[in-house]
């Protein structure tokens, strides 16, 4: 599935070389990605919704991909720009493999590359409209970092993009610890995704969880969370609100 970002109209007088290929506005977007370190590696979660504006148009969009042997990438934001980033990374990994020197790019190197790409495009006033999460493990060293559409980046024990930055990170700060088992890590991610499902209009109840360890990477089949919608705050959410609604 290819998603076309918004393009400026073709100028037939100047020819195709002068066409602008900027993403003027994100058209098809994905929402939050949440990731954390656990005792054996990295866990990452994202739903499969693709919103066309405010309409949940696509419900089978995979937003987590393996990068090389040691890294896992998740993205929120414009899906077509994410596809462009994956094309850049395919070329990077292919070039690295061509050396055939027994070495391969680790997650720290891939994250550093992404920070340079995002900042470079921002300086051209032609940003890639994504927030990215890059996690991985190499030689026993776990790595987890994030980079925004303007190149702001950091690494941490747990990260989130989009609404997850506001709603999931407080949960992670309170409940995360470095000796999390796989089962406890999955439960913590599911708790975060359930809160996002309740509060983020762009979230859908169809998600995947990916893990990467020294043994390799797996991405789960899509599944849904059990939900409870009978909270009193959900029954009449506008009661007492001030305004014309």
Mean pLDDT across all residues, rounded?
Answer: 91
Helix content: 25-40%
Strand content range: 25-35%
Global geometry: globular
Instruction: State the total count of DSSP E strands.
Output: 13
How far apart the termini lie comes to 39 Å
Number of helices: 6
Q: How large is the radius of gyration?
A: 19 Å
Order of helices and strands: EEEEEEEHHEEEEHHHEEH
Structural class: alpha+beta
Low-confidence stretches: 6-12
Largest sheet: 8 strands, antiparallel
Q: Can you characterise this structure?
A:
This protein has 245 residues and is α+β, with helices and mostly antiparallel strands. 29% of the residues lie in helices and 28% in strands. It has six helices and 13 strands. The chain has helices at 79-98, 107-123, 164-167, 169-175, 182-199, 232-235; strands spanning 28-30, 33-38, 41-47, 50-52, 55-58, 64-67, 71-78, 130-138, 141-147, 153-155, 158-160, 207-213, 216-219. The strands form two sheets. Strands 1, 4, 5, 6, 7, 8, 9 and 10 form an eight-stranded antiparallel beta sheet that branches. A five-stranded antiparallel beta sheet has the order 11-2-3-12-13, with helices on one face. A hairpin with a 5-residue loop joins strand 9 (141-147) and strand 10 (153-155). The longest helix is centred in the middle third of the chain and has 20 residues, at 79-98. The chain is globular. The N and C termini lie far apart (39 Å). Mean pLDDT is 91; it is low at 6-12. Non-catalytic component of the proteasome. InterPro entries: Ntn_hydrolases_N, Proteasome_alpha, Proteasome_beta4, Proteasome_bsu_CS, Proteasome_sua/b, Proteasome_suB-type. Belongs to the peptidase T1B family. Pfam families: Proteasome.
